[in-house]
UniProtKB/TrEMBL annotation:
InterPro entries: Aminotrans_V_dom (IPR000192), Cysteine_dSase (IPR016454), PyrdxlP-dep_Trfase (IPR015424), PyrdxlP-dep_Trfase_major (IPR015421), PyrdxlP-dep_Trfase_small (IPR015422). It holds the Pfam family Aminotran_5. Residues 11-376 form the Aminotransferase class V domain. This is Cysteine desulfurase. PANTHER family: CYSTEINE DESULFURASE, CYSTEINE DESULFURYLASE FAMILY MEMBER. It catalyses: (sulfur carrier)-H + L-cysteine = (sulfur carrier)-SH + L-alanine. Its cofactor is pyridoxal 5'-phosphate. Keywords: Iron, Iron-sulfur, Metal-binding, Pyridoxal phosphate, Transferase. The keyword Flavoprotein does not apply.
């Protein structure tokens, strides 16, 4: 099916915040909204039809990360999945210890529940990162203790695109009691993920990051992991998540996942890497003082480009680009309205670095074109020249 363009009045470069749904997903959801109205928990024909769609979607999604269908629990999104993994583990395993390991650059959906657990007597180690936004495995090994019950480390960072050494961490934890959870909200759909090879126990995703619907995601929960349901109520999701499943949205999510083959993911990564080079090369050729926050490594999340434009505040650049019809971000969309500096850039460069207040994030998606990026660069050059006159 031919894809339709986005609003021609807006150059959308904020796909790490959310992505627009694609026609194939919308059509799949519309079909189910019009024709499948049964409750998947009902035993009559309408319910059985909904249940079949639910389980087919579960199978499609499980296959994408080499999991078993019964290991996929549908949730309202990445935040619920993260919270469920963290809180569930803490409640179920506190008799084995109260130590948790994470990183200083996790999403707030990880950091805030951990901060709450600290108030309840749990101890959390926040691993530092280098200027590329990556932890040291030496630091990780040093932090690991006999009473560590959970390690939660994101697969790819949402602000700078750094890729953590997930498989190496999983290998270290193979014979340890700690459960290993990874927030893969940004990485899912771009990187090939095999939860068995990487020894991942729990993994969180969100549908709206891969051109699917909002308010939907899943938590991969390895067979054998037992903890109480985060939501109390019905017996849906094999008693692991109460609440009637949103069949149209889940069908749309499965459609989005089905389109992200290994070939398609590699194609997008390569395209986005070329986009990064286009932006950086043109800015440097124009004499704009620019530096990458993080690195341009081949294994990173290529859809995220966080750049320091020296001498121009984040707020000024973002406001001027918005007036020019360009949507970018100053950091995570979940904290974009806050006056607080990015905790990710602060962890990478220190609280006194000018990068903290002079950086912007642009993130590419399915509809991004080189014309979009050339227009973006043209506007940045104009803004910088006007401000430096």
């Amino acid at each position: 099916m031919k894809e339709v363009a986005l609003n021609n009045d807006v150059v959308y470069l904020d796909n790490a915040a959310t992505t627009p749904m694609v026609p194939s997903v919308i059509n799949e959801m519309l079909d189910k909204m019009q024709n499948v109205y049964g409750n998947a928990s009902s035993t009559h024909a309408a319910g059985r039809e909904a249940h079949m769609i639910l389980e087919n979607a579960r199978q499609t999604i499980a296959k994408s990360i080499n999991a078993l269908p019964e290991e996929i629990v549908f949730t309202s999104g990445g935040t619920e999945s993260d919270n469920t993994a963290i809180m569930g583990t803490a409640i179920a395993r506190q008799h084995l210890g109260k130590h948790i390991i994470t990183t200083a650059i996790e999403h707030k959906a990880i950091l805030q529940p951990l901060a709450w657990l600290e108030k309840q007597g749990f101890e959390v180690t926040y691993l530092p990162v280098d200027e590329n936004g990556v932890i040291s495995l030496t630091d990780f090994k040093a932090a690991l203790r006999d009473d560590t019950i959970l390690v939660t480390i994101m697969m790819g960072n949402n602000e700078v695109g750094s890729h953590m050494p997930i498989q190496a961490i999983g290998e270290i934890l193979k014979d340890h009691q700690a459960w290993f959870h990874t927030d893969a909200v940004q990485a899912f759909g771009l990187l090939d993920i095999d939860v068995k090879v990487a020894n991942i126990d729990m993994l969180s995703t969100s549908a709206h990051k891969i051109n699917g619907p909002k308010q939907l995601g899943f938590l991969y929960r390895k067979t054998g992991l037992v903890f109480p349901s985060y939501l109390k109520g019905g017996d849906q999701e094999d008693k692991r998540r109460a609440g009637t499943e949103n069949i149209p949205a889940i069908a749309g999510f499965a459609q989005a996942v089905a389109e992200l083959t290994a070939t398609e993911k590699a194609k997008r990564q390569a395209k986005y890497y070329d986009f990064k080079k286009l932006v950086l090369d043109r800015l440097k050729q124009a004499g704009v003082e620019v530096a990458v926050n993080g690195s341009l490594t081949a294994d990173g999340l290529q859809h995220v480009l966080n750049i320091w434009i020296k001498g121009v505040s984040t707020y000024v650049m973002q406001t001027n680009l918005d007036l020019a019809g360009i949507a970018i971000s100053g950091g995570s969309a979940c904290t974009a309205g806050s006056l607080e500096p990015s905790h990710v850039l602060t962890a990478m460069y220190g609280s006194t670095s000018p990068r903290i207040s002079e950086s912007i994030r642009l993130s590419f998606g399915r509809y991004t074109t080189s014309d979009d990026l050339n227009y973006f660069v043209d506007q940045v050059i104009k803004i910088v020249k006007r401000l430096h006159q």
